[in-house]
């Protein structure tokens, strides 16, 4: 991101002991998306404010509340918060997303004195789920939510009062692994006895689908919590801690390269720059001029999402049959 903005950040890969190509590809996709949003912002604002990894303080409404905005773009009257989600387990929706709305409040509180912000746009970029979710709200409606809903609810929570209520917000709670209310909420699915799908009718499957992501996330939270507890000495009947699988790696890459070169071989591979890096090298105009004819976007893998998702529905086998 910093490179796309013409800045000179430190290379974060220099001292890595492990490198994930999938994560690298996902962050490239995210950077390309942000670059598109910046260009779009420039169509109605000559000099938009671009903030990367910006600390956002919304403690005016949530005691001790703050977070980090992955990307904040302010273009005259539009504030755009973009949040990168690498996770695969839970599909994150931007619509009325409390975390995103809190981040927007933090940005609004800090920069409103400089800009006449009227529209708040919030985007979740979740590449591993092929999910780009955007939600817009007016400044007035956001402030109304902050004062009438967020502030009193946050005050109750901070004081240890109010009722426990399981939901998407659980993923941000410190007690998410051990909360009994969350466990009860997820174990409601036990009424289906985890039968194989062919034994369930469409209505039952439709009732289960919205809960699956939360169930998977809860199960993973339990597993991680149990692992950490076991490492600290807690014993769970029937379970033990063992060493997981690992991959071989070089202990000294420079020594390996020198040794292989001395043996008469080339230890390096030649790799073409990715689209984001190539765009940064050439500039967007030159990139489009030279390479637009070589860019394709493969069709994404089919995924089942709620009807509220803004992407158009794919043709199914039933649709194809009815068209014949």
Structural account:
By secondary structure, the chain is an alpha+beta fold. The protein folds into three domains: 162 residues, Lambda Exonuclease, Chain A, CATH 3.90.320; 86 residues, no CATH class; 71 residues, no CATH class. It has a five-stranded mixed sheet with strand order 1-2-3-4-5. The chain is built from nine helices and five strands. Helices cover 39% and strands 13% of the residues. The model has no long low-confidence stretch (mean pLDDT 85). It is globular and about 65 Å long. Helix 4 packs antiparallel against helix 5.
Keywords:
324 residues, alpha+beta, 3 domains, 5 strands, globular
Major sheet size, sense and barrel closure = 5 strands, mixed
The assigned structural class equals alpha+beta
CATH class of the largest domain: Alpha Beta
Read across the widest sheet, the strand sequence of neighbours is: 1-2-3-4-5
Write the layout of secondary structure elements.
Layout: H1 21-42, E1 49-57, E2 66-75, E3 78-84, H2 98-111, E4 119-126, E5 131-138, H3 139-158, H4 180-187, H5 202-231, H6 253-262, H7 275-282, H8 284-291, H9 317-323
Parallel strand pairs: 3-4
Antiparallel strand pairs: 1-2, 2-3, 4-5
Helix pairs in contact: 4-5, 7-8
Task: Briefly summarize what is shown.
This protein has 324 residues and is α+β, with helices and mostly antiparallel strands. The chain is built from nine helices and five strands; from the N terminus they run αβββαββααααααα.
């Amino acid at each position: 991101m910093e490179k796309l903005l013409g800045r000179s950040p430190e290379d974060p890969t220099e001292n890595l002991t492990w490198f994930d190509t999938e994560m690298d590809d996902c962050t490239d996709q995210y950077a390309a998306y942000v670059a598109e949003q910046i260009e779009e912002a420039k169509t109605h604002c000559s000099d938009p404010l671009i903030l990367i990894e910006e600390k956002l303080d919304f403690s005016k409404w949530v005691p001790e509340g703050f977070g980090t905005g992955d990307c904040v773009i302010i273009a005259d009257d539009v504030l755009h918060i973009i949040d990168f989600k690498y996770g695969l387990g839970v599909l994150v929706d931007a619509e009325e997303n409390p975390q995103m709305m809190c981040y927007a409040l933090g940005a609004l509180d800090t920069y409103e004195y400089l800009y006449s912000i009227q529209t708040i746009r919030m985007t979740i970029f979740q590449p591993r789920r092929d999910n780009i979710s955007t939600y817009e709200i007016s400044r007035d409606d956001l402030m109304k939510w902050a004062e009438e809903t967020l502030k009193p609810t946050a005050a109750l929570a901070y004081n240890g009062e109010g009722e426990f209520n399981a939901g998407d917000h659980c993923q941000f709670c410190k007690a998410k692994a051990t909360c009994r209310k969350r466990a009860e909420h997820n174990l409601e699915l036990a009424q289906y006895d985890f039968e194989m799908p062919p034994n369930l009718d469409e209505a039952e499957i439709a009732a289960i689908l919205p809960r699956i992501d939360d169930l998977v996330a809860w199960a993973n939270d339990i597993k991680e919590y149990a692992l950490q507890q076991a490492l600290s000495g807690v014993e769970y009947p029937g379970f033990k801690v063992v060493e997981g699988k690992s991959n071989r790696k070089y202990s000294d890459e420079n020594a390996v390269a020198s040794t292989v070169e001395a043996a008469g071989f080339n230890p390096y591979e030649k790799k073409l720059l990715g689209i984001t890096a190539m765009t940064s090298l050439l500039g967007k105009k030159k990139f489009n001029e030279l390479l637009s004819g070589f860019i394709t976007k493969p069709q994404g893998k089919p995924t089942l999402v709620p009807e509220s998702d803004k992407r158009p529905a794919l043709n199914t086998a039933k649709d194809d049959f009815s068209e014949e």
